[in-house]
Specification:
single chain, Aspartate Aminotransferase, domain 2, Aspartate Aminotransferase, domain 1
Length: 472
């Protein structure tokens, strides 16, 4: 009974919160000190006494939600964090209540079955062969594989570990020898260099590929880089391309790079944490041309696929490369047993795993494929309209046309002015932008994620930037 009553309170509070956010009824971002928030939430008292229910729960929810960053707000344009569909959030609630640690099938059959389904949906859209539903047929022929992980960084690490172990299976037991390298552009996500350190390759041993002025790999110079690396005695575990780069939203030329990797027998990994969602867009899928030639890719459903954080997919062309990378021994888990399903524990570093597939599926269950594609296309269309508008303003600089829903721009003035503009906008609470550097210069950066954002909001943002800049 308490769960039902408290649950209705929570849902009612969230319903009000979403309405307020979409209508810009409260600031998109509101930052108090940790000490202040502790007091507003009455944490110490609730921690000691319990009893967070009724009016006390109402006060807690009110204070908590007032101190959140409102992703559904039309002024939220800062980061690549998805604006989750409420139905997908229900998936998180169901998973939290059932708490099935589904990496072992018997510990979460429904959750594991849904993850299996969602992985196959992604494999199909890449153009790779699906995992067989008759799991006894697994690895009896060539087919793809995949697993959902708690974030893109973990997915990248898992993919590169599989690539390393595929190149030299003895590394897993004996450790890395000298000369191992990963090739990537300088615009790659920081998780790539972090992974190099964790895998024993070494962060300093990431071989940076030549790029154009906006950080995209230059295929015409990549071959020479591969030759140079090998002339130095380096062993290339993998080459990584962006789809798209986190800072700029620009795609590396996947098709051309894939051909180079195939010709030189190099594992080709695509970091599609953000842009991989374009697999579901007919209008913009061409930016992923050549993706079926990759050996592995990742995709974050919690970015452009309306899924609550965190839910990332690691996808691999050859299941054997993934399965053989993470073979385990644990007598309490791995033994002869009735097995009507599939254990995902053999495909990932994780042992306990949440039912990520449920929240991922629930987003599609609410919108359908057509609705999801429409959301993606609308975000990118609006970003391109925003670019056209900003490019027409003489006091703004836009260094390149956007390819996705990420747009970098700069107001007249210094690098410090750009940061000061961002800080003042955040303080005012109507707009929330991020920032990045391009060719050594500081730019403001918008990421259009909220379905509530319109071109009118972009025009109001421009007016707000001018107002705060005039007060410097």
């Amino acid at each position: 009974m308490t769960f039902t009553i408290d649950g209705k309170q929570v849902l009612a509070a969230l319903d009000r919160y979403l309405a307020e956010s979409r209508q810009a009824g409260k600031p998109v971002i509101h930052q108090e000190t940790i000490e202040t928030i502790h007091g507003q939430l009455d944490l110490a008292s609730v921690f000691r006494e319990g009893g967070l229910s009724g009016s006390r729960l109402d006060r807690f929810l009110s204070a908590y939600l007032d101190n959140t960053t409102r992703l559904h707000h039309p002024g939220f344009m800062a980061h690549q964090v998805g604006c989750p569909h409420p139905s997908a959030a229900l998936g998180s609630l169901i998973d939290g209540a059932t708490n099935n640690a589904m990496a072992i099938y018997e510990m979460g059959p429904a959750a594991a079955a849904i993850e299996f389904f969602m992985i196959n949906q992604l494999l199909e859209r890449i153009g790779w062969d699906l995992m067989p539903l008759e799991t006894t047929r697994r690895l009896t022929y060539d087919h793809g594989a995949g697993v959902l992980t708690h974030g893109g960084s973990l997915a990248n690490m898992t993919a590169l570990m599989a690539a390393r172990n595929h190149m030299d299976p003895a590394i897993r037991e004996n450790g890395c020898t000298g000369g191992l390298t990963i090739m990537a552009p300088d615009s790659c996500h920081y998780s790539v260099t972090k992974t190099a350190g964790i895998l024993g390759i070494g962060e300093k041993n990431v071989f940076l590929l030549p790029t154009d002025r906006l950080g995209r790999i230059r295929p015409d110079q990549a071959v020479r880089s591969i030759e140079t690396a090998r002339e130095r005695g380096l062993v290339i575990a993998a080459l990584i391309a962006n789809a798209c780069a986190t800072g700029t939203g620009l795609f590396d030329p996947i098709d051309a790079i894939a051909d180079i990797c195939q010709a030189h027998k190099i594992w080709f990994h695509v970091d599609g944490a953000h842009g991989g969602s374009l697999l579901f867009s007919k209008k913009y899928r061409h930016l992923l041309t050549g993706i079926s030639k990759a050996d592995s890719m990742i995709l974050d459903a919690h970015k452009m696929l309306r899924t609550p954080t965190v839910c990332a997919a690691l996808l691999m062309k050859q299941a054997s490369c993934l399965d053989h990378a993470f073979e385990h021994t644990a007598g309490y888990l791995f033994h002869e047993k009735q097995q009507p399903g599939f254990d995902f524990i053999g495909q990932t570093l994780e042992c306990t795993k949440a039912g990520l597939g449920l929240r991922f599926f629930m987003a599609f269950a609410a919108l359908g494929e057509t609705g999801m594609a429409g959301y993606i296309d609308t975000c990118i269309d609006l970003t391109r309209s925003a670019h056209a508008f900003l490019a027409s303003q003489t006091d703004f600089d836009t260094p390149y046309p956007p390819e996705t829903n990420i747009l970098c721009f700069r107001y007249q003035g210094s690098d410090q002015d750009q940061l000061a503009i961002r800080d003042r906008l955040i303080h005012q609470g109507a707009f929330y932008l991020s920032s990045t550097t391009i060719e050594g210069q500081r730019y403001l950066r918008m990421v259009i994620m909220s379905p509530a954002t319109s071109l009118n909001d972009i025009e109001n943002l421009v007016a707000a930037i001018r107002r705060v800049a005039n007060n410097f």
